[in-house]
Amino acid sequence: MTMSNQNSDDAKLNSIRELIEGILPLDQLATLQREMKTGDRVQIVLAIEQDRVPWSDRILVPLQENLYVVERDDGARVVKCFCGHEFGDYRLNWKEEALVFERHPQDGIVFQPNKGADPVWQLLREFYCPNCATQLDVEPVPVGYPFVFNFLPDLEF
Ligand SMILES: [Zn+2]
User: Fold this and answer.
1) What residues are neighbours of ligand 1 (ion), with CB under 5 Å?
2) Contact, 50 vs 145, CB < 8 A?
3) Are 49 and 68 in contact (CB under 8 A)?
4) Domain of 12?
């Protein structure tokens, strides 16, 4: 590997790290999104994410911001928060184990009265980690709608 290749690889790695951390400038973001992805992109992202978290369980896939599917030493595959809190088996909806706040869609805080959805039809369901209180997700759903299962990764390997 030449010195310029090493510098190019380091720059790419830094760009992807800044993308994950949400600090990549917009012009570079567009460039990164549009470029051809090399076959090692998944491994690069996993290595960056593994380096960022304060625990050592192996990340199988980042599920969404602050949530990961990890494989523990005992072989269990669970959803885990950045803080280390575990939500249980990845095949079950992690939201069932989260703190939930159902926000009135015209609460005057997030949405002004008469500017949000009709509360007879819709509510805003907010999900928080019970350990670190990070807001993990928000669903605008019809009243009475079950928790949305966002994503079930295919990890049967
Ligand atoms: Zn947490």
Assistant:
1) 81, 83, 85, 129, 131-132
2) no
3) yes
4) 1-52
Q: Which two tokens stand for residue 2?
A: 């030449």
Mean pLDDT by 10 residues, the chain (157 residues): 66 87 90 83 92 96 96 97 98 98 88 85 95 97 95 86
CA of 7 from ligand 1 middle (Å) equals 35
What gap in Å lies between CA 72 and CA 49, rounded to an integer? 16
Residue 105 within a domain: no
Q: How far is the CA of 129 from the centre of ligand 1 (A)?
A: 5
Alpha carbon of residue 27 to chain centroid: 23
- Cα of 122 from ligand 1 centre, angstroms: 27
Reported as half-sphere exposure (CB side, CA atoms, 13 A), residue 33 has a value of: 9
Q: 21 and 8 in contact (C-beta within 8 Å)? A: no
**Residue 101 in domain:** no
Please check whether residue 22 lies inside any domain of the structure. Answer: yes
How many domains, the chain?
1
Residue 44 lies in a domain: yes
Q: What is the pTM of this model?
A: 0.84
**How far away, in angstroms, is 34 Cα from ligand 1 center?**
32
